[in-house]
Amino acid sequence: MFGRIAAVVLGSMLLGIGINGFLIPHHLLDGGIIGLALILHYYFDFQAGLWSALLSVPLILYAWVKDRPQFHGSVYGMIVTAIFIDIFSPIQFTLPIWASAILGGVICGIGVGMMLRYKTSTGGTDLIAYFIAQKRPINIGLLIVLMDVCIVGLGYQVLGLQSVMFSSITILTAGVCANICYEGF
């Protein structure tokens, strides 16, 4: 129980720092539900954390039906992550875009992978990847990357080619790091 709580808090803090500190200053996207929330943040100036939680509600309800332990970890993970994303919104680092893309991906990937390892998640597409990986012999990191590529592709209209290219670096890095944290080397 202590491990799950620590994974939720630390993973959520890492996501809040990675998103606000590295992605938002350059209008980069993470994938999944958080990526959709970032698109809404950039376009309408909505709170990214709040919207990531609201957009995750259908996935959380699915977890309620299919896997109650995962539901509990995900609903808490979703709430804590949303809070840390919004609390850490003033944190922004001024690094070159390529460094922000890589560091943001590493930090977010470690946060997500840590949460998945302890059967928790942010409630977003990480949860979809978790359920698919439980049923099929597909690498969870690859699943996250594939879904994230789709989300980043949606951001093209709002953010342009440069953001999409560097956001792709972010999600590939995050997918690799999440997989390493979840499955090990």
UniProtKB/TrEMBL annotation:
InterPro entries: UPF0750_membrane, YitT. GO terms for cellular component: plasma membrane. The chain crosses the membrane at residues 7-28, 48-65, 74-91, 97-116, 137-158, 164-182. This is YitT family protein. It is found in: Cell membrane. PANTHER family: UPF0750 MEMBRANE PROTEIN YITT, UPF0750 MEMBRANE PROTEIN YITT-RELATED. Keywords: Cell membrane, Membrane, Transmembrane, Transmembrane helix. It is a multi-pass membrane protein. Pfam families: YitT_membrane.
